[in-house]
Specification:
Chain lengths: ~525, ~775
């Protein structure tokens, strides 16, 4: 029987979990290191790749072959160039580069080895992962030989896991899930009752995580080294190495007020001491972002801190003392501790995989998941572009009309009406939009589909066209534009589709062995 | 009654028994007498020798004889009284029956009291001069001053027009609402004390409203309400169904809304008081002659026979039964009556209609035959009417023009006759048209056309889709048989450009015309051959409206015309107010002033500025020369850094409309990002202009954000950071924190944008917002 698997594909660490025979999620350990979380670092060699902690060994010898933070590039048209040792524009890149999807597929391939007989998986993504990034994740899974049941949002998975814990089953009420990982930050407000999780709203920053704190520490190291030696560190060539060092310092400062570390630089090794206070000072701008996003999430849910019963922590970066202090200052109470913050997302993904594969469950598993229910929300504004009269400029302008609001519970169906603006108009150009913010300006929305509805006859302006959007839990958006008088329709279903060159990408890495 | 019968019967029985008893007593005596006599006789016959027995018998006989001859009056002697008693009691019965009937009637009346409130056949007018309906739910706070008292009702002779009702039965009535509340407490048949004020004196009047039935018989229902019109007329403002003027639902009212009342029974009606006085004299059954002036038809006379309330109820019932099945009609009429004839709510009416599955046959099909007997009606002519009102349409303040009388499909087929039929609506500012001035000019120089041309201008627009070739605002629609014919058309306020600022009166002119009817490009007026036709103006100036728009058939291609007026306040300079060339000059100067300090991009900006003013509507040779000269002189001034920004801004405020100011900002931003950068100095300049021109900060910031989203910000330094986010010096800390959080979220959301430049800009701005906010937390 196929296993029920959930995967947390993280920026810095990834994990894989399965439901055991009793229906409890179990995070699987690496067959190499016996660790439950695997570094998302990839070391690219000619015919094989190394994934995990071992990949960091390549930093000394061939740092340009070491790829980190792949997840942050999933929405970009970039490739990793081993020549340059960095992500570079896809256009004009040399042969032998790797796309973010390809690199991610190596990570997934590695995780796959921790168990056997995996066919279908649920993979988690940040709540505000763009469409392109979701497509890349699906492609990565395909290239790794995995069939994805569904992509679910990380904080939702974590909430699901929390709700299923025996000790925590008594959590009810409004809960804030604070997910600060290595590369992304999500904050989600949901309602938990028994094992039922209903998401109310999500906010986040795809470029905010532990790695950014590491980068600030690298700056401190650089300044201190320069102060001490007169010369700065070789950041151009050894940045990754210093970033690893910074992470070690960061971990140390989470338990100590200060930490000294020997830093190798152009002027030789130098012992540098960094205090917790210096570190906290350096990340104040990022802390400010955390605060603002928490405030946004509370505003978006219409709740105040006193309405939130618990704050749940997810992600390794929540171990940093200033982060929990910040949470406490905003929420007016300390967050809930006692759950493994590194494993919650993968475990939650496994539970969700179980919910989606009920026919594959045994009786014990069915019973364990019987009461688990989950409802997510739409994390984007879905709309269409229309012409309206701008009262400010006194002329017609193109503006974005929102059909489905952000935070609408899924599945969502909304209908609105638009109309032609000229007499005898023969057709109407259709543009389906997606945006994270409530945007009217066309410049600020993403057009995810374009089409055209032609009319069989001519009518005066004001001809009504009914627009219906249906967004389901799997992330599929079905749009219908119907001319009310002739009943002629334009319909399209949008779901994350594979990149056009997926086959080509797959073929280029087919031969590669993952270590 | 039953008790009386019982008692009478018992009394009669008693009499009968009594008389019977008496009779039996008498009869007994007689029998004894007879026996004695018989005995004596027998004795005598037998020669009874028993002298004692004979003596005894004789004594008994004598004794009895004494009784019979000397007896008192016996009941049987009063037998004759029995019939008398019966007659007497019959009379009594009759009288009490009458009383009980009266009582019965009284009882019935008191039941009616609870169903039908007391009415007094007098009426008031509310603050808008409309007849006050006197419904309890109305809150009419006009004083209860009598405006009409109908003839031949109880109030007549006691209450008069202009009496102010101060109280009813001692309860004060300060308003019509108070009066209504007191009135409905009254009972039919019960005397009511009115305390009134009449010509400064306080008087008491005592009136007994007889009954609802009596009221229904006596009240005359005309069914017309009027309002004052032009100081010396009254105009019909409302027509009621099923009353005298419109007894049948599906026949037209004999007098229509909009008719001007000239006279009633030859008595001139020059005011609403005249009208109220005349209608107070009405009685049901009378035939009243009305002379009215009707648009497009002139003066017409109508004879109307007045019906009473019962007549109204009958008409109403006939109609209800004609449209509803018996069951539902019965129910509706019953509810109507039980509701004291106040009316049935729309909801309930709908419910009843839904109950009724019978297909309604009420059609208002006017065929030519219906009109063929009417005077003054031309079958071929169409009589459209319009009204205009202010309304919000699709969230925009708009003027909504309602059209009535458009030709139906069959008519259109006839009218077309090889041509196309159009509905065209222009709007004119008629504020400055003065009839006295018009008549003066008409009587002297006769140059009324010139007067009209100078004092009545078409409304223009900036919107191409709303205009003809010369930017005159127009709605034009071809009417095809079996096509969509509009009954309402909306004109958003925002698309209109009035000629002048301030309180203006607009005239919405609707033409039903053929495609052969031309309209002047510049003035928006219909053309008569090669000349401009000012008939709409002269028609408006015709105070009496005695003639139709085209009584003589001079404008054969105009099939019908209607106009409606409305007032509006226009808060910005009108197109005549603005000196267009001055505006262009200022635009050019401002464009060059942007970069004059740094002396950069002046040459590149020259072309952009030139493009901006190229299509301003003035394509005359003189206009082009003026523009070229302005470009040259301002360019040279900019090179020498001599453009005075303050004076430009001052002039611009006087010579630009709101939307033009935003367009100016748009131009400045386009000029600023020519080199794909947005500098601190440019930002400062544009912020200053926006503030001087009183632009709405949020809207301005939005335009700025949109324009600068994908360009590099340069030379800002630390101090200028806040202004990029629209933070001003007068904001407090809380406001700044709020703005910065909003900005952070906005830019954070844009890090997902498909455009790489926007994504990168968004990341920078997001971090900048967070960093700036740090200072305040």
């Amino acid at each position: 029987m196929s296993k029920i698997i959930g995967i947390d594909l993280g920026t810095t660490f990834s994990a894989i979990a399965q439901l055991d025979d009793l229906g409890n999620p179990e995070v699987l350990a690496s067959t190499d290191t016996n660790k439950k979380i695997t570094s998302s670092t990839v070391y690219l060699k000619e015919k094989n790749v190394v994934v995990g902690d071992k990949a960091l060994d390549g930093l000394n010898a061939t740092p340009k072959n070491v790829v980190t933070e792949t997840k942050r590039q999933m929405e970009n048209d970039v490739v990793f160039s081993t020549q340059k040792g960095e992500w570079t524009d896809k256009e004009g890149a040399e042969e032998g580069c790797y796309s973010p999807a390809q690199v991610s597929s190596f990570i997934l391939g590695k995780l796959k080895e921790y168990t056997s007989d995996i066919k279908k998986v649920v993979i988690t993504v940040p709540a505000l992962f763009a469409e392109k990034a979701r497509v890349a994740t699906l492609d990565a899974a395909k290239m790794a030989g995995l069939e994805v049941i569904e992509l679910i949002n990380e904080p939702t998975a974590a909430a699901c896991y929390y709700a299923s814990l025996p000790a925590v089953k008594k959590i009810t009420g409004k809960v804030l899930v604070f997910d600060l990982g290595g590369g992304t930050f999500d904050v989600t407000v949901c309602e938990i009752e028994a094992q039922k999780v209903e998401v109310i709203t999500s906010r986040g920053d795809k470029w905010l995580g532990g790695k950014d704190f590491d980068a600030e520490l690298v700056n401190i190291m650089n300044n201190k080294y320069k102060e001490a030696t007169g010369e700065g560190l070789d950041l151009a060539n050894k940045k990754l190495e210093y970033m690893e060092k910074a992470e070690q310092i960061k971990r140390a400062l989470s338990v100590r007020e200060k930490h000294a570390e020997v830093i190798e630089g152009p002027k030789g090794p130098k012992k540098i001491e960094i205090t917790r206070s210096e570190f906290e000072q350096s990340i104040q701008t990022h802390i400010e972002k955390l605060k603002m996003l928490m405030e946004e999430a509370l505003d978006g849910s219409g709740l105040k801190p006193e309405n939130i019963s618990h704050t749940l922590l997810v992600g390794g970066s929540t171990r940093i003392p200033i982060v929990t202090k910040t949470i406490e200052s905003i929420m007016k109470k300390p967050p809930l501790k006692g759950v493994n913050v590194d494993e919650a997302v993968a475990a939650g993904a496994a539970i969700y995989a179980g919910l989606k594969s009920k026919q594959s469950l045994n009786e014990a598993q069915k019973q364990a998941l019987e009461k688990v229910k989950m409802q997510d929300v739409c994390n984007f504004y879905m709309g269409t572009l229309i012409q309206t009269d701008d009262p400010v400029l006194n002329r017609k302008v193109t503006t974005n009309m929102i059909i489905i609001d952000r935070d609408t519970p899924l599945p969502a169906t909304k209908t609105d009406t638009i109309a032609t603006i000229y007499d005898d108009q023969e057709s109407v150009f259709l543009e389906i939009t997606q945006s994270e913010g409530r945007e009217k300006n066309r410049e600020f929305v993403n057009i995810i589909h374009e089409g055209k509805l032609e009319f069989p006859d001519k009518k005066p302006k004001g001809r009504p066209i009914q627009v219906t959007y249906k967004y389901d839990t799997s992330g599929k958006l079905h749009c219908t534009f119907m001319d009310e008088s002739s009943k002629k329709k334009y319909e399209v279903s949008l779901r994350p589709e594979s990149a056009k060159d997926l086959q080509k990408q797959y073929e280029s890495i087919e031969h590669i062995v993952i270590e | 009654m039953h008790k009386f019968i019982k008692f009478s019967f018992l009394f009669v029985i008693f009499l009968f028994l009594f008389s019977t008893y008496s009779q039996s007593e008498t009869d007994k005596l007689t029998r004894e007498n007879i026996n004695i006599d018989s005995d004596l006789f027998k004795a005598l016959k037998k020669n009874e020798t028993d002298k004692h027995t004979l003596k005894n018998k004789l004594e008994i006989f004598k004794k009895n004889q004494g009784k019979s001859t000397k007896r008192r009056s016996q009941p049987q002697d009063f037998k004759f009284l029995i019939p008398l008693a019966i007659v007497f009691f019959a009379l009594i019965f009759g009288m009490t029956s009458t009383e009980s009937t009266k009582k019965k009637n009284k009882l019935s009346e008191s039941k009616e009291k609870s169903k039908h409130a007391v009415r007094f056949t007098l009426f008031f007018r509310d603050k808008n001069n409309k007849i006050a309906m006197q419904y309890i739910e109305d809150s009419d706070d006009a004083e209860p001053r009598i405006k009409g008292v109908q003839n031949a009702c109880e109030s007549y002779g006691h209450l008069e027009i202009n009496d102010l009702i101060l109280s009813i039965n001692g309860n004060p009535t300060k308003t019509i609402s108070d009066y209504t509340k007191e009135r409905i407490k009254l009972k039919w048949g019960q005397e009511v004390t009115f305390k009134i004020e009449r010509k400064g004196k306080i008087l008491k009047k005592y009136i007994t409203p007889i009954s609802f039935e009596s009221w229904k018989e006596k009240i005359a229902l005309l069914g017309i309400d009027v309002l004052p019109h032009k100081k010396k007329y009254v105009k019909v403002s409302n027509i009621d169904f099923f009353d005298s003027v419109r007894p049948k639902y599906d026949s037209p009212a004999l007098i229509a809304e909009g008719d001007i009342i000239i006279s009633v029974n030859s008595k001139k009606i020059a005011s609403i008081e005249n009208w109220d006085k005349e209608i107070s004299g009405f009685k049901p059954g009378q035939t009243i002659t009305f002379k009215v002036k009707r648009k497009m038809k002139g003066i017409i006379s109508e004879k109307i026979k007045l019906i009473n309330y019962n007549g109204f109820l009958k008409n109403n019932e006939e109609y209800v039964r004609s449209v509803l099945g018996k069951k539902v009609a019965d129910l509706m009429l019953k509810e109507y009556e039980e509701g004291d004839y106040i009316g049935i709510s729309d909801e309930r009416r709908q419910e009843l209609q839904n109950m009724d599955s019978k297909e309604k046959s009420k059609e208002n099909d006017y065929t030519d035959d219906d009109y063929s007997d009417d005077e003054g009606y031309d079958e071929k002519k169409i009589y459209i009417t319009t009204t205009v009102k202010k309304e919000k349409v699709a969230s925009k303040e708009s003027f909504v023009l309602t059209l009535d009388g458009l030709p139906d499909d069959e008519k259109l087929k006839i009218l077309r006759d090889g041509k196309k039929i159009f509905l065209k609506i222009y709007i004119f500012d008629v504020t400055d048209l003065d009839s006295n001035k018009y008549y003066e000019i008409s009587d002297t120089t006769g140059l009324t056309d010139q007067y009209f041309s100078n004092h009545c201008h078409v409304i223009k627009t900036n919107e191409v889709t709303w205009s003809d070739e010369n930017m005159n605002l127009i709605q034009s629609k071809e009417l095809e048989p079996y096509g969509d014919h509009p009954t309402e058309l909306a004109f958003p306020y925002s698309v209109m450009q009035l000629p002048k600022v301030g309180k203006r009166k607009l005239s919405f002119r609707t033409f039903l015309c053929t495609n052969k009817q031309k309209f002047d490009d510049v003035e928006g007026r219909p053309k008569d051959g090669e000349s401009i036709n000012y008939r709409p103006e002269s028609f408006k100036m015709d105070d009496d409206g005695e003639y139709g728009f085209d009584d003589h058939g001079d404008y054969s291609e105009i099939l019908s015309y209607a106009s409606s007026e409305i007032e509006v306040e226009y808060k910005q300079p009108g197109y005549l107010d603005i000196n267009r060339r001055k505006y262009n000059d200022l635009t050019i100067a401002l464009g060059f002033a942007l970069n004059q300090q740094e002396g950069k991009n002046l040459k590149e900006n020259f072309e952009k500025i030139k493009d901006e003013i190229r299509y301003d509507g003035d394509s005359s040779a003189e206009g082009n020369i003026y523009k070229s000269l302005s470009l040259k002189s301002n360019y040279e001034s900019a090179l020498k850094k001599k453009i005075d920004l303050e004076s430009i801004l001052k002039e611009l405020k006087k010579n630009s409309r709101i939307h033009e100011r935003y367009e100016m900002i748009d131009l400045l931003l386009n000029l600023a990002i020519t080199d794909e950068t947005y500098g601190a100095k440019e930002n400062e300049f544009i912020d200053k202009v926006a503030k001087s021109l009183d632009l709405h900060n949020e809207q301005f910031q939005e335009i700025k954000k949109r324009k600068t989203a994908s360009v590099k910000f340069v030379d800002f330094g630390d101090k200028a950071d806040e202004s990029i986010f629209g933070i001003t010096k007068d904001m407090d800390k809380k406001e700044k924190l709020k703005v910065l959080r909003k900005e952070y979220s906005r830019w954070n959301a844009l890090t997902n944008n498909n455009d790489k430049a926007i994504r990168e800009r968004a990341r920078e701005m997001r971090d900048l917002a967070a960093n700036t906010r740090r200072q305040y937390t």
